[in-house]
Amino acid sequence: MAEVISKDLIRGHTDTIVLNILQQGDSYGYQVAKRVRELSQGHYELNEATLYTVFRRLEKNGALTDYWGDETQGSRRKYYHVTTTGQEMLAEKKAAWQFAKPIIDELITGQITEED
Amino acid sequence: MAEVISKDLIRGHTDTIVLNILQQGDSYGYQVAKRVRELSQGHYELNEATLYTVFRRLEKNGALTDYWGDETQGSRRKYYHVTTTGQEMLAEKKAAWQFAKPIIDELITGQITEED
DNA sequence: ACATACTACTATGCGTGTCAAAGTAATTTA
DNA sequence: TAAATTACTTTGACACGCATAGTAGTATGT
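ok -> structure tokens follow
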């Protein structure tokens, strides 16, 4: 039985996942990674390198801005914030997933999946 | 609204899609491509180069065998046949998708999707 | 005091899958 | 006889995810 999600199944979803988590409040790398582990109940782990690649890509696209936290103790943390552009992007990506899901189902199983 | 499925959303599914179609009967490149277009109602098109890459990969993995059809007219056609290994692979990949789907849902929307 | 583990961020370079583009070749339609 | 369609193939580029390695501060245990 599958216990971990293959990287090719997750591909294309990482941006959406990160945006979705950050939309619920500004956060930083390690916390986002943790949240992913929680949400997936341990079935998916966002690789660190991947995570920071995602951050950089999303910043380049104007979906995120970052700022250093003012921690007086502990390691420095870079916080990421979703911009309006990022919110729109998230909405589009969620819609794209909802759209693609039943089609993939049809292609893979040959059966129609009802829409909500 | 999304009209076409992005390549990164389909990534990792192409092998499964091709296996699923071939499992319903031996077929050849062009026909498989057509079937994909039909099943997705025009929302997804398997690029030719991708399709032949998939065939070659699946053959390398022992999931498919091929043979030339004995057409007395029309272009020559190379038929692909799913092996037992291929059937097992298909079953695994289908299971992996059913497993991953609700987790991706959870990661993207933050809501739990019920299992069947 | 020193080792170990954990938090936190960054850089480099590789493997894989998909695809664009171009090509070959036969058949069918106009 | 030109154009469109069927059918298969090769080459090379690109993006994404990830393995690996590194820097650095903090916390805990002995």
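Residues 7-8, 11, 28-30, 48-49, 52, 74-78 of chain A lie near DNA strand C (CB under 10 Å from a C1').
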